[in-house]
Amino acid sequence: MGSDEQTWVAAASRPTSARLIDRVYPEPGAVKVPEIIPLFWLVKVLTTAGGEAGSDYLAHYGNVGGGGTVLVIFLAAVALQARVRRYQAVAYWSFAYAIAIFGTSVADFLHLDVGISYAGTSVLWAVVLAAVFLLWFQREGTLSIHSIITRPREAFYWSTVFATFALGTAVGDYTAIALNLGYLASGVYFGLAILVPAVAWWKFRLPPVVAFWIAYVLTRPLGASFADYLSKPQALSGAGYGDGPTFAVLTLAVSALVLYLSVAQPDVQPRERASGIRTDQSAYPATAPARTGRPAGRHVGGRSGGWLRQ
User: Fold this and answer.
1) Of 21, 48, 97, 55, which Cα lies nearest the Cα of 220?
2) pLDDT (tens digit, 9 = 90+) per residue, 180-198?
3) Can you tell me the distance from the alpha carbon of 175 to that of 187, in angstroms, rounded to the nearest whole number?
């Protein structure tokens, strides 16, 4: 029996449910997240800002109209990202933008409809984020984005992204409203705070993966604070441009940058990082035996990649 026949027989012998999952959500063929270049951080902050303005704008249409629209956008983006087998800028950033809107809406719902205080939702989402990190590391042995080459790791990655958006929304509102700092001052403070992990990596050898995720979390309240400053009325310490116009301008800015990334592809992770990856459950060729028998990943270590490149 030839290799092609053996492959066909093996595929046909798999359970129907597994074949259906493979069709809807195929196993990644390469890394499904971008390389961390400076432009990544700009697009990330703009998506967080757009997610804040977009969620607030859609909230004007109520839980049914606005909430239903948020859910449709989120599910469409899930389907788009699930279908691709390697990083594609349009699919990745569409999903990130949808999560920004969805995560903001969930955090706001818990505060406005359920009645949990900003401090309470901040603690809640911090616990959720810590739990996701813990489960991810216990199962995979790494939190590096360079290891997102299997379905479980991608699921952990996007769960983390969702938790960071919800946490950032809660923390940003807590500082701006509960602490009475105002939106602009909150944005400035978070802008200064995001420099801390960079300096800690540069001067004090903070592991790059740790520095990356701290900065990633901080981009959310940073972008959201400036979005609220632009969109909210002057009576609420804002500039008064409105949720709708702010959302539209930010969406256009994100779209233009994602179009550039899609065409120029400066953020596609280097080909050598994806070499040796098969479409089964394998990961990168291990530099050392995996401790638990799970696929070996790219672990924290060294400074050669730089903080910006995580």
Assistant:
1) 48
2) 999 999 999 999 999 999 9
3) 10
By the 10 Å C-beta count (0-12 exposed, 13-18 middle, 19+ buried), 173 is classed as buried
Average pLDDT over every residue of 102-128: 93
Residue 247 to residues 56, 97, 132, 182, 253, Cα–Cα distance (Å): 9, 11, 30, 20, 10
pLDDT of residue 7: 46
pTM: 0.81
Distance from C-alpha of 211 to C-alpha of 141, rounded to nearest angstrom: 17
Q: Which residues in 182-220 are b (16+ Cβ under 10 Å) and which e?
A: bbbbbbbbbeeebeebeebbeeeebbbbebbbbbbbbbb
Q: Is residue 33 predicted with pLDDT exceeding 60?
A: yes
The span from the CA of 276 to the CA of 234, in Å, is 56
Give the least confident one: 59-73, 77-91, 150-164, 261-275: 261-275
Ordered by start, the domain boundaries in the chain are 33-266
User: In residues, how long is the chain?
Assistant: 310
Token pair belonging to 221: 């309240």
How many other C-beta atoms lie within 10 A of the C-beta of residue 89?
Answer: 21
User: Positive or negative, the Cα torsion across 196, 100, 306, 37?
Assistant: negative
Half-sphere exposure of 211 (CA within 13 A, CB side): 25
Burial class (CB in 10 A: 0-12, 13-18, 19+), 60: exposed
- Do the Cβ atoms of 100 and 54 come closer than 8 Å? yes
Q: What does the block give as tokens for 105?
A: 């809406």
Contact yes or no for 91/80 (Cβ under 8 A): yes
How much is the pLDDT for 274? 44
